[in-house]
UniProtKB/TrEMBL annotation:
Keywords: FAD, Flavoprotein, Oxidoreductase. Its cofactor is FAD. It comes from freshwater metagenome. Residues 3-89 form the Acyl-CoA dehydrogenase/oxidase N-terminal domain. The lineage of its organism: unclassified sequences, metagenomes, ecological metagenomes. This is Unannotated protein. Belongs to the acyl-CoA dehydrogenase family. It holds the Pfam family Acyl-CoA_dh_N. The keyword Magnesium does not apply. GO terms for molecular function: acyl-CoA dehydrogenase activity; flavin adenine dinucleotide binding. Residues 195-309 form the Acyl-CoA dehydrogenase/oxidase C-terminal domain. The keyword Oxidoreductase applies.
Amino acid sequence: MPSAEQEEITTTVASFLAARMPATAHASVFVTPGAEIDSALFRECAELGWLSLGLPERFGGVGYGLAEEAMLFRELGRGLAPGGFLPGVLGARVAAFAGDADLAASIVSGSVQVALATRDTTDTDDVSVLHAAEASLVVVCDAASAALYSIADCALAPIDPVDGSVRIARGTLGGSVIASVAADLDPVFIRGLVLCAAMQAGTAEAQCELGVAYAKVREQFGKPIGANQAIKHRCADMAVRAEGAFSQVCYAATALDGGAEGFAEEAIIAKYYADEAARLNGEASVQIHGAIGFTTETLPHRHVWRAHTMARALAVRPALLDALVPRP
């Protein structure tokens, strides 16, 4: 069961998103080129502690654990929040643990935005970069280390994204490393997997809620479609997947916070399972909505886009599987 503080984090973030960043209000950004998020609004979120929630107090952070950060990121996923909050959190940790207090402070204040680089495969230098449009820095991390680069020194070109609310570029990193940290000092990559999984779990929960709500009001042959056993089963499966995904996220976060043996494997499992839950719940929700679920104006469709985008964040699917079960 979540603690009172964790419940407060969830309630506060959900209320802010509903009031200031409702998913229905930024629909146009999914299909129209432009900024992901207003810079002033991003800084306002930073002032609320969203980028510093899990940063140790000695670095100027709030000092909560990964479990509390996961509560925040679940709501960001559920609410389809735009903006580079994940790379901001990871980039701030790299700067802080590398000893650059000024850079860490600039990132957690929201004045410096960070993009997230993911290597397309394990045997190439090519990267895909999320949230590249507004960022001046890019963070790249793996199981061994994490580093910050200046985005101006990288050879990147924008591409047409699946999810128009997350601007993507592709190319190669360049220039000198601005800050770096080894995983034994701070496992940035593993933390990122858990937080990304939390976002995907939030997406899975949102798809379940949307599908169930629609099944209650959409009528066919004089009764709600939710009265049909096939629809009931889809809704039940969505609920089980969503609950399972966030349960694994919480388990992985608690394991890392407690320094338990095998926390890295638990984080990988959380990311893999949450990606699957978000994808499968998206398929089910769209099917329940019928033809309207395929239109870009609807939340189920946009959640599907976001799920596909975040499934490639930090590590592509084959890399996750190889990390769990190395190839002979």
